[in-house]
Every structure is written in structure tokens, then in C-alpha cells.
Specification:
The chain is mostly beta strands. Among the domains are: 167 residues, Ribonuclease Inhibitor (Leucine-rich repeat, LRR (right-handed beta-alpha superhelix)); 170 residues, Alpha-Beta Horseshoe (Leucine-rich repeat, LRR (right-handed beta-alpha superhelix)), CATH 3.80.10. The protein is built from seven helices and 49 strands. The N terminus and C terminus are likely disordered.
């Protein structure tokens, strides 16, 4: 036994010596000329100064003239002779100092160079790369270079990987004009990977397909996303039989997907999202045995159906969102045991969700939203790897499955706009990773029970609106202290609620909507200075008697709805200062308000876009005229004057699109000059070969483009006894008016006007 122990120890000793010997032979001692060139390069480089020193140049900080560049310098790898073979200066915040005379181009043994993710401040790629004749790997991606790609790179005939991809929104990208794509790659016959994403190539299908197929016979990875390419695809592309990854998304291909993609026998990834593709997608591409990732999203004219998937399919990602794929999900989808992402949002799929999804044990992201799925959510054991489930905007019925209690990794659950019913399981709120829960626009009933063990909940978004929930809001809800968005509107919740409790418990709250319940809101706000700064507050139909005092301390509020309450008296003048100018939407309709409190502040409601004062008791001359408004409703008040009689008053309303001033106490006439500056309300009718301008005075909304909830929220119930016109508008039109007599409700000097005010 002792002999065996000794033998093992001796063997381990020998192995350690061999390992150290082999490890030390990876590089030799740095040669002096190599060290000098690297130090000279370091001296010449400049760095982006806006970042703290702790974030800049983590590799170059280890470069010291007193240490060996091969063994001690980060980002440097040498051969046994001490020649620098690989230099990695990626993510070093380098902003300048690399020009045509840089010492970098004298590192003639260099085989790998990585300058990715630096900040070269929109400078051209310098000449000189052709001096690095031994390069097999060159990565300049996302380094801030712009302009024409130099011809020098086309002389690097040993290149195996070339990455010049860039993502620089708003900046002039790299381009291939002179040289063009064909010239750049003509001599790069060893290339296996070509990454040019974001480079402006601007070539049609015949040109770029033939350039690739004639020059790069060994190409395995082709990534040309957002390269200004057009179609159609050329059959010459099929010569690249070694291709296993094709990325062509975000190009204006505008063509059908040819069958030839089904002949790439090694294909693992195909990215064709946002390419303007149309026609029927070839089913056999989905049946390629090696295919792992397929992205076809945002090609609305592309249609097809899912085929029968082969057993032991390798597909990991299937993204068809915003296409016209339709039909039922086949049961064979359960054969895709490796599937981790299934995104079919906004397609035309129908039928029931197959129970075979239970077999997808690796599934992490499931998005079947905005389709026509029917029936119940399958009561199966769903993948415990799920991070996101989105089944919104379908026709699903029945209860929430009880097995979802096991989804410990679930972060986002969206079941919005279905016909789901039953009670909401309190166990949903105990899922430890859940951050967003949207159960709105369903048929859930009963009381929202007390929630247990939720004090450590990560839930930041909760939307239970437009259901049939009833009873009091449970006090345990206030333990969800991470909430940022809370929407409980349009249910049958009852009881008295103190806003103090809401805002003192929910210190992170930015949006609160309690509208349309049977609640009575107590808005005393004794400690209002401690309330969080909310962006959206909707308290419609909450039995408010007075303006909540805490509002005067809200500096970030942009959407405020206090409509359909019981507020009386004057509108306080501090309401003009809410949000420090950020308020864009104010709805005070259906109250008993009489007049604004004076004096009115200057520049009040400077950025207010929507103002709804409908159905109050406001009277006299209106002085609430927000200059940036696009929607104004002053109807059903007692105003005697609401619009300036003279065009020089400064109230130009250049963004105004909808205005309703009906059912007031106006007299007299208005010149059309009062309306001539309402440019957003005018349309050039070029289709009828006419320069006529059309204006809509009053309320006009396309019923097909707005939900009932939106119409009600904006304007209340409009039931004036008027007949609906052929276009679906129930509104007031003013076409070609010369003058408008608002006391007798008719237009003057134009018999063709259909004006109703």
C-alpha cells in the first residue's frame, strides 16, 4: 500500500514538472525590439478622459519597461523566440494615437490583433495594416472608426477572421465604396469568418452574392446585418457550402426566401429579421437537421406554417414575431427538446396551445402574444427554466394553471387581454424571481386574497386592471415594497384608501392607477413632502372632494387624471406648476369646478399636450390656453369666450389636432384667421388633386384605431344624439370656413361647409 502511495506521488511530481516545462515553453523572453515597439505604441495612444481612471486601460497599466512583455504584460502573447504573436487591446477606452506611422504596424510577427470596443472618435481606419502580413485574425469592431475601409486590408491574404462590424447610431458608418466588397475580399481566400455588420456596402443581391461566392470558398460565418444590402438573393450563394451561420438581418432585401437556403446542409443559424421578405417561407428550412437558431421577425409579408419537426431536433431559438405565419402549433414541437426561446408574437397562429410544450425542458422565453390561440392554458408541468411567459392578446379561457407555482426563475408573466377567469392564485405573488405581472383585461373574479411571504418580493410592475375583482384591497399588498407601477383600475374594489399609506409604503412608486372602482380616496397628505415623485397618477371616479394637496410637491408628474370626481370650487393656481413643466396630460373633466384661482402664473402648462375640462361649471372668458396642446376639450361648460378673436394674440396652437368647444355660451363670429395657424389640423388633399385645407373643430376619433378605454379616458362618454358619419367619426367638422358663427352654429360665406359646433 505504501509503495502504491509513493508511486502516485512520484507520478504527480513528474506530471507537474512536465506541465511547468510545457507551460513555460508557450512563450520565450521578450525581445528588446518587440518591447520597444510596444512601449512606443503605449506612449502614442490617448484615452477617453470622461471615464474615471478605474475604468480606463486595464491591460496597458501592466506594461512596464522593467518587466518582461511576454510573461507580465496583459493582452500580449509571444512565441518561444519572444516575438509578439497576439495583441489584445479591446475595451481599453483608446480614443486616438493610432495613425499610419504607428509602431503597431512594425510588429511583423503579429498573427492576432484585437482593437474592438474602443473610442477612436469617428476617425478613419489608418493605412498600414498591410504591413502585418502574418495576420490571421483582425478585429476592429465597434472601435469608433468611420469612413472608407482602406484597400490595405485586402492584402492580408492569411486572414481567417475579419471583424469590422460596427453599431454607431447617428454616426457615419464604415463604408465599402472604393474598394467595394468584391475588391476587399478578392484575395482573402482563407477567410472563414466575415463580420461587417453596420458597414455601408450598398449592393444589390447579384453583386454581393457573387462577390462572396467567387472569393470565399471556405467561408463558414457570414454576418452582414444592416449593411444596406438589397435583393433578390442570387443562386451563386449556394456555392458557399461550408456556411453554418448566416446573418443578414436589417437589410432591405425585399424578396422571397429562396429554397436554396434549405440546401445548406451545415446551417446552424439563419438571421433574416427586418429584411422586407415576402411570400411563402420554405418549410424545409425549418427541417434542416443541423439548424439551431432561426430569426425571421418583422417581415410582415412573409407567411408560412410550422412543419412536423423531426425527432431529436436541434432547434434552440425560433423567432417568428411580426410575420404572417399562421396555423396551429404542431404537437411535434415537443421534439425540440433543446428549444430555449420560442417567440411567435403578432402572427396568425390559432388553435390551442399544445400540451407537448411540457416536453420543452430547456424553454426559457415563451412569447405567443397577439395571436388567435383559444382554449385553456394547458395544465401541464411547464419548464422550470422559464424566465418569461407572454400569452397576452389571445382568446384563452379558464383559470391560471396551478403548476406555475414551481416557476422559480420566472421574471415576467403577461396574460393581458384574454378571457381568463376564476380567482387569482395568491401563490403567484410568492414566486421569488417575479418582477412583472400583467393580468389585465380578463374576467378574473372574487376578492384578491391576503398575500403571504411576499416581504422579499421583487415585483416591480403589477397590473390587474379591467377585471371583475371585488372587495377591499388587501393590506398585505403594501408589503410589495419594490412596486414601481401599480394599476388596479376598472374593477369593483371598494373601501376607503389613504394615499398616505400608498405612498409611504411604496417609496419607489412612479405610476399609480386606481380609477373606476368603488373606492373613496382620502388625499389629506400630511406628510406629502416624503411621498415618492410619481410620473403617472390616475384617480378617476375615486370620490375625491378636493385637489390632493401633495400634488404641489410633485416635480416629475407628467400624466394626471382626476376626472369624474366631486371636486368643487376653483382650480388652484399651483396646478400650473405641477411637474416643473413636465406635465403633458391633465384631465379634470366631470367635476364641479367653477374658475381658475388667480393670479395665473406666467407660462403655465407650457408643455401640456392634452387638457380635458369637459362637463364642469367653468364660465366667463377661458384663460387656460396651453400653447403646445394637441387635444383640448372645453365642452359642456359656461364659457362665453374661449378662443382669441384676433390672430395676433399669441395663441397659435401649432400642434392642435382635436378641439371640442361645443355646448357653451358663445356669441358672435370668429374669422378664419383665428384658425389659420392650426397647422397640425390641416391636410393637403393631394389625392383629389386639390389644395383644399381641412380642419376638424370638435371631437373626432377613429373608432377602429382607439380602444373604448382610451376614448372614455380622454373624453368621457360622448352621447350628443349626433349621427355617426361614414368614416366612423362622431365629431364636428369645419371645412373651407371663411367665418364661423358660433352663436348660431353655422358657417358663413361657404355653402359647402359641414360645420357643427
Amino acid at each position: 500500500m505504501r509503495f502504491l502511495q509513493f508511486s502516485w506521488l512520484f507520478l504527480l511530481f513528474l506530471l507537474s514538472i512536465l506541465y511547468e516545462g510545457n507551460n513555460s515553453s508557450v512563450h520565450g523572453q521578450c525581445m528588446n525590439d518587440q518591447r520597444a515597439l510596444l512601449l512606443q505604441l503605449n506612449q502614442s495612444l490617448s484615452f477617453f478622459s470622461r471615464f474615471p481612471s478605474s475604468l480606463t486601460s486595464s491591460k496597458l497599466s501592466s506594461w512596464s519597461s522593467n518587466t518582461d512583455c511576454c510573461s507580465s504584460w496583459n493582452g500580449v502573447i509571444c512565441d518561444r523566440a519572444g516575438h509578439v504573436l497576439s495583441l489584445d487591446l479591446s475595451n481599453e477606452f483608446i480614443s486616438g494615437g493610432l495613425d499610419n506611422s504607428s509602431s503597431l504596424f512594425n510588429l511583423q510577427y503579429l498573427e492576432r490583433l484585437n482593437l474592438a470596443f474602443n473610442l477612436f472618435r469617428s476617425t478613419p481606419i489608418p493605412s498600414g495594416f498591410d504591413q502585418l502580413a502574418n495576420l490571421t485574425y483582425l478585429n476592429l469592431s465597434n472601435s469608433g472608426f468611420t469612413g472608407q475601409i482602406p484597400i490595405d486590408i485586402s492584402r492580408l491574404t492569411r486572414l481567417v477572421t475579419l471583424d469590422l462590424s460596427t453599431f454607431s447610431p447617428g454616426k457615419t458608418p464604415l463604408m465599402l465604396n472604393d474598394p467595394d466588397l468584391g475588391t476587399l475580399i478578392r484575395n482573402l481566400t482563407e477567410l472563414r469568418e466575415l463580420w461587417l455588420d453596420g458597414v455601408n456596402i450598398s449592393a444589390d443581391g447579384s453583386k454581393w452574392c457573387k462577390a462572396l461566392s467567387s472569393s470565399l470558398p471556405n467561408l463558414q460565418v457570414l454576418s452582414l446585418s444592416n449593411c444596406y444590402l438589397s435583393g433578390p438573393f442570387d443562386s451563386s450563394l449556394l456555392q458557399l457550402q461550408s456556411l453554418y451561420e448566416i446573418r443578414l438581418d436589417q437589410n432591405n432585401i425585399s424578396a422571397e426566401v429562396p429554397e436554396l437556403f434549405g440546401d445548406f446542409s451545415n446551417l446552424t443559424s439563419l438571421h433574416l429579421s427586418t429584411c422586407g421578405l415576402y411570400g411563402k417561407f420554405p418549410e424545409r428550412i425549418l427541417q434542416i437537421q443541423t439548424l439551431r437558431n432561426l430569426y425571421l421577425s418583422n417581415n410582415k409579408r412573409l407567411y408560412g406554417s410550422l412543419p412536423e419537426f423531426p425527432k431529436e431536433g436541434l432547434l434552440e431559438t425560433l423567432v417568428l414575431s411580426d410575420t404572417s405565419f399562421s396555423g396551429e402549433l404542431p404537437n411535434s414541437i415537443g421534439n425540440l427538446r433543446l428549444l430555449s426561446r420560442l417567440e411567435l408574437e403578432n402572427c396568425g397562429f390559432n388553435g390551442s396551445i399544445p400540451a407537448a410544450i411540457e416536453k420543452l425542458n430547456q424553454l426559457q422565453y415563451l412569447d405567443l402574444s397577439s395571436n388567435h390561440f383559444t382554449g385553456p392554458i394547458p395544465s401541464i408541468r411547464w419548464s422550470e427554466s422559464l424566465i418569461e411567459i407572454d400569452l397576452a392578446h389571445n382568446r384563452l379561457i379558464g383559470p391560471i394553471p396551478s403548476h406555475w407555482i414551481n416557476l422559480m426563475k420566472l421574471i415576467n408573466l403577461n396574460l393581458k387581454n384574454n378571457s381568463l377567469n376564476g380567482t387569482i392564485p395568491p401563490t403567484l405573488f410568492t414566486l421569488p424571481s417575479l418582477q412583472k405581472l400583467d393580468l389585465s383585461q380578463n374576467q378574473f373574479t372574487g376578492q384578491l386574497g391576503e398575500l403571504y411571504n411576499v416581504s422579499s418580493s421583487l415585483l416591480d410592475t403589477l397590473d390587474l386592471s379591467i377585471n371583475k375583482l371585488e372587495g377591499p384591497i388587501p393590506t398585505s399588498l403594501f408589503q410589495l415594497t419594490s412596486l414601481i407601477i401599480l394599476t388596479l383600475s376598472w374593477n369593483n374594489f371598494n373601501g376607503t384608501i389613504s394615499l398616505d399609506m400608498f405612498f409611504q409604503q411604496f417609496r419607489n412608486l412612479s405610476s399609480l392607477d386606481l380609477s373606476g372602482n368603488r373606492l373613496s380616496i382620502n388625499a389629506s397628505g400630511a406628510n406629502s413632502a416624503l411621498f415618492p415623485q410619481v410620473g403617472t397618477l390616475k384617480l378617476r371616479s375615486c370620490n375625491l372632494k378636493v385637489f390632493p394637496f401633495f400634488l404641489r410637491n410633485q416635480s416629475k408628474l407628467n400624466h394626471l387624471d382626476l376626472s369624474d370626481n366631486q371636486m368643487r370650487g376653483t382650480i388652484p393656481n399651483w396646478i400650473y406648476r405641477i411637474g416643473n413643466g413636465t406635465l403633458t396630460h391633465l384631465n379634470l373633466s366631470y367635476n364641479f369646478l367653477e374658475d381658475p384661482e388667480r393670479p395665473l402664473p406666467d407660462n403655465g402648462f407650457k408643455w401640456l399636450g392634452v387638457l380635458d375640462l369637459r362637463s364642469n361649471m367653468l364660465q366667463g372668458k377661458n384663460s387656460i390656453l396651453p400653447p403646445s396642446a394637441s387635444f383640448l376639450d372645453y365642452s359642456y361648460n359656461n364659457f362665453t369666450s374661449i378662443l382669441p378673436r384676433n390672430p395676433g394674440t399669441g395663441h397659435n396652437f401649432p400642434m392642435l389636432q382635436i378641439v371640442d368647444i361645443s355646448s357653451n355660451s358663445f356669441t358672435g363670429t370668429l374669422s378664419n384667421e383665428c384658425f389659420s395657424s392650426w397647422k397640425a389640423m390641416m391636410i393637403n388633399d393631394e389625392e383629389e388633386q386639390s389644395n383644399h385645407k381641412h380642419m376638424i373643430l370638435g371631437f373626432g376619433v377613429d373608432a377602429e384605431e382607439s380602444t373604448e378605454e382610451e376614448l372614455t379616458e380622454m373624453t368621457g362618454d360622448y352621447d350628443d344624439g349626433e349621427e355617426e358619419d361614414e368614416e366612423g367619426f362622431n365629431g364636428h367638422y369645419c371645412v373651407f370656413c371663411t367665418k364661423l358663427d358660433i352663436s348660431r352654429k353655422r358657417a358663413i360665406h361657404n355653402p359647402n361647409c359641414n360645420c357643427h359646433i
